[in-house]
Amino acid sequence: MERETAEKAPTIQDVARIAQVSAATVSRALSRPERVTDATRNRVSEAVRITGYTLNQSARSLRLRAARAILVALPDIGNPFFSTVLDAIEREAARRGYGVLVANRFARDNTDALRDYFLSNRADGLLLLDGSVDAEQLAAFTRAPINLPLIVACESIPGAPFHTVITDNFYAAKQAALYLLQSGHTRIGHIKGPKGNVLSSEREAGFLAGLASASAERREDWMFTGGFSMDDGARAAKALIALKIRPTAVFAANDEAAIGFISEISRLGLKCPDDVSVMGFDDLEIAAHFQPPLTTMRQPREAVGRLAAEALIDLIEGAPGKIVPKQFVLSSELIVRKSTAPPPSLRS
Predict the structure, then answer these.
(1) pLDDT digits (tens, 9 = 90+) for 194-222
(2) What contacts 24+ positions apart, CB below 8 Å, involve 82-85?
(3) Closest alpha carbon to 246 in 263, 231, 261
């Protein structure tokens, strides 16, 4: 079927004619998609795409009155990193009169779910906290007929033209490496994040840039394959124990891996920071209460959530004179605690 062209705006009757259903069925498919068959929903969706139908000419104001909600999509609601971010999103949304819906493990779901959310008016915009979603599929939702207001936060999608709220992971990881170097360490290892993850890549690159800026030694056997879980940190600890020449300090790609690493080296007979200094990234709530309290790079998670929600609602409402920056980049802060110390050779 080819896209129809007409001088007047497409109507629900145009959609019904192309989908070969009644106008009432089209209305039902768009407002209550769960009440029609998959075949009917797919035919209506295709007809909407062909005609360029946008629900109706006053859809913008009607949607704002009908939903007053935003959808927050994240990769793992069990990850404690997201608790502060979500809390800030909910508080800012409530302040602006919006509710919050949460979609967990979103990137693993079929993107048809996203279309249903917005064509059925259950949410007015998407706040995406997952950088692994396919950029091309996502971009299609920002165009007609859905015209999805979208903010990507926490993780960016490289090369994608979306509004983002992120922290400077490269610079923060470089600062972490420089802090350990300035503490006197010359043998520094890194527990990498998940392979293919944008945060992992940026933090690894920043760490290596920090080493390079001081002409510090880099060894592949000190670059531990890891991830963002405590189990990943524990596996890195076992790899470190097996080395003939060990680093005196380790920078982990996040706090959970750092904590798992410290727990495992303790079980295997080493002490932190007496034998090896350890630092993480994020500053989760547990970091200050773990033993020893964890040195880390603190991400401004509350600010990320608040600014992301504020920017998304500004996009939804299209307030006159309200310009939403294409990218917010926030800085992380070095938090020094007792899991790091000068290397044994420098202690009196």
Answers:
(1) 998 999 999 999 999 999 999 999 999 99
(2) 82/129, 82/154, 83/285, 84/285, 84/301, 84/302, 84/305, 85/129, 85/153, 85/154, 85/301, 85/302, 85/304, 85/305, 85/308
(3) 261
Q: How far apart are CA 35 and CA 103, in angstroms?
A: 21
Name the token pair of 125. Answer: 């915009």
DSSP class of 113: H
pLDDT, position 58: 36
What domain range is 128 assigned to?
59-167+302-330
Cα 121 from chain centre: 24
Are 158 and 187 within one domain?
Answer: no
d(CA 56, CA 217): 63
pLDDT in tens, 80-104: 899 999 999 999 999 998 999 988 8
Is the predicted pLDDT of residue 268 greater than 90, yes or no? yes
Please give the tally of structural domains in the chain: 2
Residues 120 and 225 in one domain: no
